[in-house]
């Protein structure tokens, strides 16, 4: 079942970060640049596999949690665009 307009993982990440934690401090804790984390939080960049593992360690989420959310978001976004219809491959007899 397809999700309807899933949130970008950066939007969800904002809710997971501790209250009062600055982007600069969160980025420092994760070992990434402030710009890299800010781009994710502002839905301008996606979650990489490496970032998924960093967030899993820092937030206690499972490995793959953030990546799966990113894939759902990416697929939904792709489905919103016009694309050429592709026929299925012929089945071998």
Account of the 3D structure:
There is one protein chain. This protein has 93 residues and is mostly helical. Helix 2 crosses helix 3. The longest helix has 16 residues. The mean pLDDT is 95.
Class from secondary-structure proportions? mainly alpha
Helix percentage = 40-55%
Return the string of H and E elements: HHHHH
Instruction: Report the average pLDDT across residues.
Output: 95
Number of strands: 0
Spatial separation of the terminal alpha carbons = 31 Å
Radius of gyration (Å): 17 Å
Number of DSSP helical runs: 5
| Proportion of beta-strand residues | under 5%
Overall 3D geometry? elongated
What does this entry show, briefly?
With 93 residues, the protein is mainly alpha-helical. It has helices spanning 9-16, 23-30, 34-41, 49-59, 65-80.
List the SSEs and their pairings.
Blueprint: H1 9-16, H2 23-30, H3 34-41, H4 49-59, H5 65-80
List keywords for this structure.
elongated, mainly alpha, 93 residues
């Amino acid at each position: 079942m397809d999700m309807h307009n899933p949130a970008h993982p950066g939007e969800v990440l904002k809710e997971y970060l501790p209250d009062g934690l600055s982007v600069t401090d969160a980025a420092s804790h994760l070992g990434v640049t402030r710009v890299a984390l800010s781009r994710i939080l502002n839905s301008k960049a996606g979650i990489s596999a490496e970032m998924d593992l960093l967030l899993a360690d820092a937030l206690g989420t499972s490995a793959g949690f953030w990546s799966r959310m990113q894939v759902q978001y990416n697929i939904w976004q792709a489905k919103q665009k016009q694309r050429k219809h592709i026929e299925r491959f012929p089945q071998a007899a």
